[in-house]
């Protein structure tokens, strides 16, 4: 048993923790949880805890149902909303097969394998996510989505729900060891954003899952509801999860070059080129729902076209303003990702695409200096700017032909995602919407 596991066991005993929740996600990115007694924890570290993987989306087939959860002791944290009277802790888990091998269908394992490939090339991947969501009044239903305020971008609402909510959510995240860089009101009524500080890729995905859970818990305790749907309102901006990426080589930022344009190194330029090259085929993972494409093509500063720019918010990839005194801040921002994505799979394909650009020394096309949304189709065609997929159906067709996505996700996860997304599109296509009824209804 390693020292971190021993430390966890001592803390569990010292704090008289009665329940330990083991967290993992299914392939769709839904958080799963099972509670164990502290007496089972030592065996869980050594051998794992058995569960029926066949009932978890995409995890395994019925005749291969036995699987194991092995907790990652480095992710041990108390759940602050449970209080100290009956304390509860949580750990993220890796999913194993009965013989102790990493399950190829585990989304966290998918990202861990991609990170290992990056490390073999000498890189540590750092990720800083910006999580947007809508805060709604209760009661909430399909026909009743009411934002808690009518404020806009960076507005301060006196005695507003959003201010108190963000303060409580940020404090709870920091109590769980998750550092928050910013929090503020976003552009839509009731829309908020919480930005997490940069950490390594696996920790970042764990933090995104934790943040979504914390945000939902705080909202419910204040008789509100948090919604991570990419485009819940026709007339208001969608919710994205702009994701900042950088690579470290040892202690040095591999994206930094003081002599490069925007202080961006050749490594950084190759990484962006890889993302642009593969942006269309990875979209079914970074934007995994039918509703995701209503955000991408519904205005509100969502990226619709495959291009990059410096401080150009109409571009898919942005190179943020560099701070001369902070070379570690050199990074790129991928703007298509939305908060309904499975963060493990989304980061896996983003990193793989960027590394492919480095490996093949892909040349970066000229930046887009104009507002890409305002250009005509002909102007974009002349500039070589392609569109992102306009629907989940077209995104899945592109993904199905992608060797890069298949290699990043592995055969099991790749096949499940394709089948699952095709099913989601079929179910959506069969729906009859109120708008269609209004189009044909004649009122006499």
Task: Describe the overall structure.
There is one protein chain. Helix 6 crosses helix 10 (392-400), helix 10 packs antiparallel against helix 12 and helix 11 crosses helix 12 (411-429). It contains 13 helices and 18 strands. Strands 7, 8, 9, 10, 11, 12, 13, 15, 16 and 17 form a ten-stranded mixed sheet that branches. The protein folds into two domains: 3-101, Glutamine synthetase, N-terminal domain (Ubiquitin-like (UB roll)); 113-435, Glutamine synthetase/guanido kinase, catalytic domain (Creatine Kinase, Chain A, domain 2). It has helices at 3-14, 41-47, 107-120, 161-175, 201-221, 266-286, 292-296, 343-359, 377-382, 392-400, 403-409, 411-429, 434-440; strands spanning 19-25, 31-36, 49-52, 66-71, 77-78, 88-96, 124-137, 180-185, 191-196, 199-200, 224-227, 243-249, 252-253, 305-306, 308-310, 317-319, 332-334, 386-387. A hairpin with a 5-residue loop joins strand 8 and strand 9 (191-196). The protein is an alpha+beta fold. The protein is globular and about 65 Å long. The longest helix is centred in the middle third of the chain and has 21 residues, at 201-221.
């Amino acid at each position: 048993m390693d020292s971190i596991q021993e430390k966890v066991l001592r803390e569990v005993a010292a704090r008289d923790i009665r329940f330990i929740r083991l967290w993992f996600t299914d392939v769709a990115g839904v958080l799963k949880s099972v509670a164990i007694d502290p007496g089972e924890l030592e065996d869980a570290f050594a051998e794992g805890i058995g569960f029926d993987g066949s009932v978890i989306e995409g995890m395994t087939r019925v005749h291969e149902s036995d699987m194991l959860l092995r907790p990652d002791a480095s992710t041990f944290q108390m759940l602050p909303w449970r209080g100290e009277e009956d304390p509860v802790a949580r750990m993220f888990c890796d999913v194993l097969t009965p013989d102790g091998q990493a399950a190829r269908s585990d989304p966290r394992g998918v990202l861990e394998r991609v990170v290992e490939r990056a490390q073999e090339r000498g890189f540590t991947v750092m990720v800083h996510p910006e999580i947007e969501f809508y805060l709604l009044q209760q009661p909430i239903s399909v026909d009743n989505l009411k934002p808690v305020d009518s404020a806009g971008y960076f507005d301060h609402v006196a005695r507003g729900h959003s201010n108190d909510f963000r303060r409580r959510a940020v404090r709870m995240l920091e109590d769980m060891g998750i550092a928050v860089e910013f929090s503020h009101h976003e552009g839509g009524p009731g829309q908020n954003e919480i930005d997490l500080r940069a950490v390594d890729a696996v920790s970042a995905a764990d933090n995104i899952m934790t943040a979504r859970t914390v945000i939902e818990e705080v909202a419910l305790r204040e008789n509100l509801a948090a919604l991570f749907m990419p485009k819940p309102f026709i007339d208001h901006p969608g919710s994205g999860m702009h994701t900042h990426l950088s690579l470290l080589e040892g202690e040095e930022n591999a994206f930094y070059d003081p002599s490069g344009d925007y202080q961006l190194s050749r490594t950084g330029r190759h990484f962006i080129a890889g993302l642009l090259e593969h942006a269309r085929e990875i979209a079914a993972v970074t934007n995994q729902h039918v509703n995701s494409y209503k955000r991408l093509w519904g205005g509100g500063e969502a990226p619709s076209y495959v291009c990059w720019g410096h401080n150009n918010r109409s571009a898919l990839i942005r190179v943020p303003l560099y701070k001369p005194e902070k070379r570690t801040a050199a990074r790129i921002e991928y703007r298509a990702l939305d908060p309904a994505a499975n963060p493990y799979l989304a980061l896996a394909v983003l990193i793989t695409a960027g590394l492919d650009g480095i490996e093949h020394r892909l040349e970066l096309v000229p930046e887009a200096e104009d507002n890409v949304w305002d250009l005509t189709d002909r102007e974009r065609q002349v500039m070589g700017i392609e569109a992102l997929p306009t629907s989940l159906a077209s995104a899945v067709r592109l993904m199905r032909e992608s060797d890069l996505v298949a290699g990043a996700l592995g055969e099991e996860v790749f096949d499940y995602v394709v089948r699952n997304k095709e099913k989601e599109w079929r179910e959506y296509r069969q729906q009859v919407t109120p708008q269609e009824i209004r189009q044909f209804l004649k009122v006499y």
